[in-house]
C-alpha cells in the first residue's frame, strides 16, 4: 500500500455525531512534528445549505498508541480548536514509522462523551522533505573536557521548544525514565546507561570513556504525554587509547537471520538463543538497538509480546527506516548479568 493512502478510515460515526479526520495532504512522517485536523458535526441538526451542524466548544483529547508495541508510552494531547467552527487539531510527533491507532475522546457541550478511533499509517522519516523540528531538544553539559580514563560528569536536560521550558515530568519506558545509548562514530564502542534524575529536571551520569573519538549519545525518553522521543547529542573525547588486556570475547548467546532485510516495513526479527534460560531485562525478554551507517538514524526494538514463541526464541518487532547497513546490539540478561550480542544487517 502506498504511504500516501495513509488512512484506512477517514470518517467515524458515534450516535448522532460524525468525525472526519483530515491528515496532511502529503501524508504522515516520522521524526517531525505533524498536524492532524478533524471535524466534528451533529448529523441530527442539518442545514439545507451548510449540511450537518458543526459541534463547537467541545472538550477533545487524543491518545495515540502503537498496538504492535504495547510497552511504548502513549502520546496524549488536548486538541485545540481551529479557525473554522467544528474543526480541531493536534500536533503529534511520531518517533518512527509504522501502524498507529488514534483514539479521540470528545465531549460536546451539554452532551455525553463519546470515543472514535482511526488507524494511522506513518511513513519513515524522509530526509528530502522540509521538516518541522522535534518539539524537544537535548542539552548536554560536561563537568570537564572529556578525556580517556578520567571520569566525567554528563548532565542531560530535555527542553520543550515552544514554550521554551525544561521538561521535568517523564513516563517510565521499560522500567527507566531515561535510557542513554553511547556509541562511538565507528561503532567500535557501545554502552547502555541510565542517568539519574535530578531535582532540577536534569539527568546525571558519571562515565569513564576507554577510547578517544566522536561519540553519539542517544537519549531515549518519554516526556509526559508526548510518547517516546529519541534525542541526539554529540561529544568528542580526547586522549589516547591505553594499553589494556585483550577484551572479553563477544557474546554468542543469540543469532539472527542473515541479510538482507526489507527497509521501510515492520517485521518480526527472530533471535535464536543458545541458552533459553534468560531473565527479564528492563521489563522485557531482551532489547535490540539498531543504528544506521549514518550514525544518526536510531531504532530501539522490543520483543513481540502478542504471540507465544519457543523458549529459545525472542521475536523482535524491527523496522529499518531506510536502506543501508545497520549495526545492532541485542541485550539479554542471564544469571543476573547483561550480555550484549553484536549483529549487523543490510536493509534493501
Task: Give an overview in words.
With 348 residues, the protein is mainly beta. It has three domains: 11-122, Immunoglobulin-like, CATH 2.60.40; 136-237, Immunoglobulins (Immunoglobulin-like); 254-347, Immunoglobulin-like (Sandwich), CATH 2.60.40.1220. 0% of the residues lie in helices and 48% in strands. It has strands at 11-14, 17-22, 36-47, 51-54, 59-65, 75-78, 80-81, 87-90, 98-107, 114-122, 136-142, 152-160, 165-166, 178-184, 190-193, 196-197, 203-207, 213-221, 229-237, 254-255, 266-273, 287-292, 298-303, 313-319, 324-334, 337-347. A seven-stranded antiparallel sheet has the order 20-21-24-23-22-25-26, with no helix packed on it. Strands 1, 2, 3, 4, 7 and 8 form a six-stranded antiparallel sheet that branches. The protein is globular, with a radius of gyration of 23 Å. The two termini are 18 Å apart. Residues 1-9 have low confidence and may be disordered.
